[in-house]
């Protein structure tokens, strides 16, 4: 297990997060470690039509050139909503020629719970899928940082319960229906990667659509 280095307080990078994975649009802006602004919109079926207007209202046109990086929620979530966010983020990162970080939807939610956990505590989160499966991920809190032990994957209930028993996890956190509210946490996780020196090219950004009803399940 790799523990991230201490965060740098001297960083003044400007990052923008775009979270669309559940149909609730969440945008967040951060300068270094300091939140600048955040906002959510319950767009759902209007996400495609309204996303660019919301971006324009949230970030004045003269500030786009100041961005150092972008972050986008890669899923799991709604296929259409994830795709809209990913295409938008890739297009913007390409035009601005800045790095694009893709962050798990489950990790964003888990990050929102970090301050309620103790050092070394295990944090398990789940999201509904289809055909009796669900998405699950297991993290550990180390120095108020989120460490991935078992990333996003499909689980059957009995297999997940066995993992929880083996790891001694007593509490499991289910994601709410709307996750655009975790855009600030999306940005926090991206910023941590930024501080480590990661500069992912926009073309490497790929969505995690998860499972469709016709997909085979591989363990």
From TrEMBL:
Signal peptide range in chain numbering: none
Cellular component, GO annotation: cytosol
GO-annotated biological processes: tRNA threonylcarbamoyladenosine modification
InterPro entries, per the entry: ATPase_NBD, Gcp-like_dom, T6A_TsaB
Annotated ranges, domain Gcp-like: 63-171
Organism domain of life: Bacteria
Protein name: Sll1063 protein
């Amino acid at each position: 297990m790799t523990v991230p280095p201490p965060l740098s307080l001297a960083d003044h990078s400007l990052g923008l997060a775009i979270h669309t994975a559940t149909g609730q649009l969440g945008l967040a802006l951060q300068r270094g470690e300091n939140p600048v602004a955040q906002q959510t919109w319950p767009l759902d079926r209007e996400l495609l039509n309204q996303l660019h207007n919301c971006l324009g209202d949230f970030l004045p046109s003269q500030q786009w050139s100041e961005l150092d990086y972008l972050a986008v929620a890669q899923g799991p979530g709604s296929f259409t909503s994830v795709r809209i966010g990913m295409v938008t983020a890739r297009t913007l990162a390409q035009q601005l020629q800045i790095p694009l970080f893709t962050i798990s939807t489950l990790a964003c939610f888990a990050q929102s719970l970090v301050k309620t956990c103790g050092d070394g505590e295990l944090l398990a989160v789940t999201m509904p899928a289809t055909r009796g499966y669900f998405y699950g991920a297991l993290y550990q809190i180390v120095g108020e940082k989120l460490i991935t032990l078992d990333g996003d994957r499909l689980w059957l209930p009995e297999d997940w319960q066995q993992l929880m028993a083996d790891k001694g996890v007593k509490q499991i956190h289910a994601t709410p229906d709307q996750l655009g509210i975790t855009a600030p946490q999306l940005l926090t996780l991206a910023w941590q990667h930024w501080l480590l020196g990661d500069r992912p090219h926009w073309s490497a950004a790929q969505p995690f659509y998860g499972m469709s009803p016709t997909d085979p399940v591989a363990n």
